[in-house]
Every structure is written in structure tokens, then in C-alpha cells.
């Protein structure tokens, strides 16, 4: 079953890692910007949550993942710390009925851990919908998510005067993929955002030289899932060996316990 338009790369090599990339489901900001003509600078859209349609998209995606068996093979889930991404992560990889469950319950039911990372958040700056709430606030609503790898309680990365350059988003994406490669898990799900995911895939294709089909380089739809495989030889490319994301420090790969 081709659940998500998956392209598997060079299947003969045992030295690969599978990444499942998910854009968050529809948020209230998507409706406001695309259907109601709201200006992106509106404070009403601060750290936007999912719309009713978005919640339905999450439910449908979870059912597809359950049917495909993917939930049994993903070892780790990385999520953006923006509300719409975390709601999508919990809904897909825990289910609507598993909100506010304990860590022990998650382990007992073989759920993959969900970890929030700043580096995979949406393009930053100017737009309040891309500015996150404090971690202390979100930890109350998302106790299932591990926030220990985020250093600042308040959003120290979002700037109100300048929008992050797309080139910097792409560099951030390559830095993130390099970090993922150094993780011990072989199959990882990432719940992130349209611009970040597209810029990351375009950089992997254009700068690193990973052969990706054109269909993988287009804008993600809400709650769309695409999967790729990366190989050891990809990670040895000069672009990745020397990449460095300015103004961002990636936490070490051993900062949290991997899922058994």
C-alpha cells in the first residue's frame, strides 16, 4: 500500500535511515489567511491551533497509519514546538483518546516518544502564527511531549522585525537532517511545517545531491505524509559535513533516552 507517495532510495544498502515527514493539519491561521483574507501580522493568529477540519485530517491520517503498520515501526517522533504541530503529533501518534496519558502508559503500549525541537519549526519572524507560546504553558497541555531539549521557556528565536531568509531555513533543515542521522533510531517521524519541510527536501536534492522526484519537492498539503530514505553516503557529502546553522545550537544526540 503506497500510503504517502513514498519514494524509497537505493534499497540495496543496509546503511540507511527512513524519515517520515508530516506537515501539520489545517490550523485556524490557514483558514484566516487563505479564506478570510486576514493579514499574517495579526496577533489573533498567535501560535495557531488546529481547526475542526484539521482535527478531522489528523484522525484520518492516524487511521491510515494504523492500517499501514507504520505506527509499529516508528521509533521516535520529533515535533515542532508550535501548537498546531504538537496537536498533530499527539493526534496521529497517540490518538485523540490518548491525550494527557502518562509516560509509563505510553511505554507500556509501545508508543514512540515524542520530542519537541526548535530546529524543525516553521520559518520564523514577523508572523505571530509562527511564534510559540512559553514551554511552561505548553507543558501543561502536552504532558506527553518531551520538552527537555528546548532551553528557553519563552520564544527567543522569533523576531518581530525580520522574516527568516529561505536560505537560512534550508540550512537549518540540513543541520536537522545531519542531527537525525546521528541518532540511533532507524525510522523517525517528523511533524513540522510546509515551508520548513519543502526547503529541507529542496536542499537535500539541490545542495546534497540526493535524487528526489519532483513530486517530493512541492509544497506539502495539510497533514500530508511523505517518506524518504537517506543513506550513509548522502551524509558524507561536503555540504552536510560542513553545514552549520547560524544562531542555532543543535542539542547532542544523546540528550534523551531512545525508545526501546
UniProtKB/TrEMBL annotation:
| Xref: Gene3D superfamilies | Phosphoglycerate mutase-like (3.40.50.1240)
A molecular function (GO) held by this record is:
phosphatase activity
Cellular compartments per GO CC: cytoplasm
Listed InterPro entries: His_Pase_superF_clade-1, His_PPase_superfam, PGM_Phosphatase
Output the Pfam families linked to this UniProt entry: His_Phos_1
SMART domains in the record: PGAM
Family assignment from sequence similarity: Belongs to the phosphoglycerate mutase family.
Q: What is this protein called?
A: Phosphoglycerate mutase family protein
- Native organism is Arabidopsis thaliana
